UniProtKB/TrEMBL annotation:
The lineage of its organism: Eukaryota, Metazoa, Chordata, Craniata, Vertebrata. One of its GO terms (biological process) is proteolysis. Residues 1-77 form the Caspase family p20 domain. This is Mucosa-associated lymphoid tissue lymphoma translocation protein 1. It holds the Pfam family Peptidase_C14. InterPro entries: Caspase-like_dom_sf (IPR029030), Caspase-related_regulators (IPR052039), Pept_C14_caspase (IPR011600), Pept_C14_p20 (IPR001309). GO terms for molecular function: cysteine-type endopeptidase activity.
Length: 222
């Protein structure tokens, strides 16, 4: 079980963020309790992000559980999600960012047993980027789970109040992550917990996409 965690905060040309450092720290500790080998990185440039992903892919093999967590600026165009490096220009386009779906395709080539993506970023459309990426068709495999911190076209929030150092998504995820439940069931319960939060009511709701047909949990012994 292998996880790559990236938290981008100190952007050169965009608003600074605060929660990713705490979120990555908390998630690292929780995943290690579940016997994940965790690589945690903060404030990466585009080249550093690409290098980190390349090294992460080398750790994957047949049957391995791979988890990618990203907290930072992001956007979604035409069904593709993009993670924004700290050195991205203003405005940025797809060439300046990393496409999550391309990473998934490469993970599938390693015949991983489970692919989990937890994306704590905005999913609004980037009006400056009209590129339509035509990536290789993703394999139809029953082992992919996406947990988006917010719905398509919406923003993800971090609220600076006492006791809320985490981003909203991680605030609720960390209380559930160690539970021995199918990953989609666990994320469903996180979504319900978030739905009771008055800070984000009507603004941010967890979205889950899954092609999981077997009972796979982060607690599984590998």
């Amino acid at each position: 079980k292998v996880a790559l965690l990236i938290g981008n905060m100190s952007y050169w040309n965009h608003p600074q963020l605060k929660a990713p450092m705490v979120d990555v720290y908390d998630l690292t500790n929780l995943l290690r309790q579940l016997d994940f080998k965790v690589v945690s990185l903060l404030d990466l440039t585009a080249s550093e992000m690409r290098n980190a992903v390349s090294e992460f892919l080398l750790l994957l093999d047949k049957g391995v559980y791979g988890l990618l967590y990203y907290a930072g600026h992001g956007y979604e165009n035409y069904g593709n999600s993009f993670m924004v490096p700290i050195d991205a220009p203003n405005p940025y386009r797809s060439a300046n960012c990393l496409c999550v779906q391309n990473i998934l395709r490469q993970m599938q080539e390693r015949e991983t047993g489970l692919n989990v993506f937890l994306l704590d970023m905005c999913r609004r459309r980037n009006e400056y980027d009209d590129t339509v990426l035509i990536s290789d068709v993703l394999k139809v495999t029953a082992n992919v789970v996406f947990g988006y911190a917010t719905c398509q076209g919406a923003e993800a929030f971090e609220i600076q109040r006492p006791g809320l150092a985490n981003g909203i998504f991680m605030k609720f995820l960390k209380h559930r992550l160690l539970e021995d439940k199918k990953i989609t069931v666990l994320l469903d319960q996180v979504a319900e917990d978030m739905g009771k939060c008055h800070f984000t009511e009507g603004k941010q709701a967890l979205e889950i996409r899954s092609s999981l047909s077997e009972k796979r949990a982060l607690t599984d012994p590998i």
